[in-house]
Amino acid sequence: MKVVATALLLAYAVSASDLGDIVSLVSEVRVPGLLALVPLLALDRAIAALRLWRLFLAVGTPVKLRRIVLSSFVGIYVGYFIPSSVSVDGITAYLLGRDAGGLANPVAVILVDRAISIAATITVGLLFASIWYIGWFSTPDVSWVVAALAAVVVSCLVGYFLLGRLAIWSGAREGLIGKAGRALQSLLQALVIFVKKPVSLATNVLLAYSLLAVRIAQVVVLAWALNIEVPWHFLALSQCAVAVLLVIPISVGGLGLREATFVSLFALGGHAQSDGLVLSLALLAMDLILVAVGGVIYSTHKGAFFLARNEVEQGAVKR
To answer: In the prediction, which pLDDT does 134 show?
Structure first.
């Protein structure tokens, strides 16, 4: 079913784009812009690993930063072939189970890390959506920005309150709703652990926004390298929207969903749909570079990553 959804989404994205425009953009690539992406990708991975490292320290289970970096790359490689970006986190948690003495702490850390990432992405996306909608960049008015920020903060507080009630209600149900509710309860319980450690939580939130800024910078630099003339704040909004939607497991590895979302958003914003398709394919190429690096690490360290299931579950750690 996901293969069919992937094919349909890709077909929509390609059919809405002009092949001539795509060829023109690709033929005029600015090489310096592509080279500038290398340090941004390295910074991306460094901040992501640092976030997990800080969270592991907060739960009293220190894990070596090098191990987290390697595990995250292998998680990207293995998770890429599973139809949901969430699977990358699940595999990373499994890989870190050996160092953490079991799966309990890695799962809690990954859940909190993912929740903070999504929350940061949604808040920034809402902010840029508000700014784009009111045309603040064409007619600057600071009061609108303050109002947008206030709306984002209030939305987060109300959302957190409602999530707690939703978790209680759905967790008592049967079937898929019950499973989703119990998963939500696990997430909220994990969050409670870190709420008691405000410094660690605040540090992770700050790093989450820093990571998001780096990823937005990647999209802006990539657009410049491809001669795509789109306002940077619209690119930021598009990146946030795509990042949130990629969590939904409706296509294989997010393929098709990202392309269709970029094409649709560019059309909505009055920009060439071909630009959206080329940009999304270029981002896919960047992902494949990370997958390739993860594949190399996996092939050279395979025995050090995957354990027998009972070894992880029992917390039998060989050091």
So the answer is: 64
DSSP-H helix ranges across the chain: 2-15, 19-27, 31-58, 65-79, 86-95, 97-100, 104-134, 142-171, 175-195, 198-225, 232-245, 257-268, 273-305, 309-313
Q: d(Cα 268, Cα 71) in Å, to the nearest integer?
A: 39
User: Residue 38 — φ and ψ, nearest 5°?
Assistant: -60, -55
C-beta separation of 313 from 94 below 8 A: no
Higher pLDDT, 125 or 180: 125
Amino acid at 206: L
- C-alpha span between 297 and 270 (Å, rounded): 42
Residue 246 confidence (pLDDT) above 50: yes
How many angstroms from the chain centroid is the CA of residue 270? Answer: 26
pTM for the full model?
A: 0.78
Indicate the SS3 state at residue 62. Answer: coil
